[in-house]
Amino acid sequence: MEKTSGFNRIERSDKKMYGVRGLLVCGYPEEERNNFIDFISKLNMESLPVIFSVNTDIERGAGELLTMKHKEEISGPSDLPRAVIMSGLSQDELHMLMDAYRGAGFVSQIWATLTPSNEAWSLKALLIELLAEARAMKKKQ
Q1: Residues 82, 24: Cα–Cα separation, whole Å
Q2: Whether 50 contacts 85, CB under 8 Å
Q3: For a designed S-S bond to 83, which of 46, 72, 91, 110 qualifies (C-beta 3.0 to 4.6 A apart)?
Q4: What is the tens place of the pLDDT at every residue in 13-24?
């Protein structure tokens, strides 16, 4: 990873990133969750566990949530900021996923990766940090 302005740029390689394999998906209304699952399937990534966070998960650790079963909390309200926290993907998979998402014209969201530093953070603390980083990135642009 190349460090730029306090953020890490993810290179393109087959190197696996930190954490258990999965996607922690935040802030998706119930009616959009199956669309996200369909999107993942179309990318031939259907073996990738997708965990949807709900409002009651806000104090749970990000790493803990990523150990849940695929689609375990596919129902339930989520008024959280829209974000996807990626864990255990290869760098190439990360780029493919993000590029395909943007190309599909979906609603903008925050993208992040699980790290040894943020793994134990509560989902609330992680989302607050991600929102602050997103604001900082917008100011630089």
Answers
A1: 11
A2: no
A3: 110
A4: 577 889 999 999
The phi-psi region of residue 135 (left if phi > 0; otherwise alpha if psi is between -120 and 50; otherwise beta) is: alpha
**58-74 per-residue burial string, b: 16 or more CB within 10 A, e: under 16:** beebbbebbebeeeebb
What tens digit of pLDDT does each residue of 26-58 get?
999 999 999 999 999 999 998 999 999 999 999
Annotate 117-137 with b (16+ C-beta within 10 A) or e (fewer).
ebbebbbeebbeebeeebeee
The helix/strand/coil state of 87 is: strand
pTM of the model: 0.87
Cα–Cα dist 22/132, whole Å: 24
Domain positions in the chain are 17-140
What are the backbone angles phi and psi of residue 49, rounded to the nearest 5°?
A: -65, 135
CA 24 to the chain's CA centroid: 5
pLDDT classification of 5: cutoffs 50, 70, 90 = very low
